[in-house]
Task: inverse folding
């Protein structure tokens, strides 16, 4: 089963066609799951260079994803996900590019909002279960375009019911 099908079924959503095409292309181009490197800069909460795994099976199983990322209360997150985060779906596992074998994994992952036009991309972070806008659309995310300068968390369009779960948007990020 493809990761796109697994995500759609696990979260009971319809994935945007461009996301499905991207995931299918990633699976064909990188059967060895070679990660892409994402540099998260200003804004947001988590900074650094991360390997993004868009094909991890754990993305379709929140409890398994939480276990992998050392995120406590994965069972609670799984139970409350839809109510708290609406149409957000995990998009990529993040692994700190500089992390040593003894270091803890980053307690965060990328998520995409399947219910908003353009499918904005967020970083979901364990600390307070906050989401930080990385790009206002999936196309902008792939192109390395953050939200326009001056965008505040109040401006962010998302299906997240509790606006207090939104942190300040990233103002810079880049693909390496």
Result:
């Amino acid at each position: 089963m493809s990761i796109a099908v697994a995500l759609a079924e696990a979260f009971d959503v319809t994935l945007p066609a461009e996301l499905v095409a991207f995931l299918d292309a990633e699976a064909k181009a990188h059967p060895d799951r070679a990660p892409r490197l994402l540099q998260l800069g200003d804004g947001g909460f988590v900074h650094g260079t991360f390997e993004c795994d868009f094909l991890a099976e754990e993305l379709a199983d929140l409890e398994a994803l939480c276990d992998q990322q050392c995120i406590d209360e994965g069972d609670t997150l799984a139970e409350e996900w839809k109510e708290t985060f609406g149409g957000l779906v995990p998009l990529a596992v993040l692994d700190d590019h500089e992390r040593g074998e003894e270091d803890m994994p980053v307690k965060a992952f990328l998520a995409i909002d399947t219910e908003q036009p353009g499918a904005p991309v967020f970083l979901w972070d364990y600390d307070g279960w906050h989401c930080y806008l990385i790009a206002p659309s999936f196309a902008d995310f792939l192109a390395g375009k953050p939200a326009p300068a001056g965008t505040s968390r109040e401006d962010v369009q998302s299906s997240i019911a509790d606006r207090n779960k939104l942190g300040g948007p990233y103002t810079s990020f880049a693909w390496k």
User: Anything to note?
Assistant: The beta strands are 36-40, 48-53, 88-96, 108-113, 121-125, 130-135, 173-175. The chain has five helices and seven strands. Residues 3-29+45-168 form one domain. The chain has a mean pLDDT of 92.
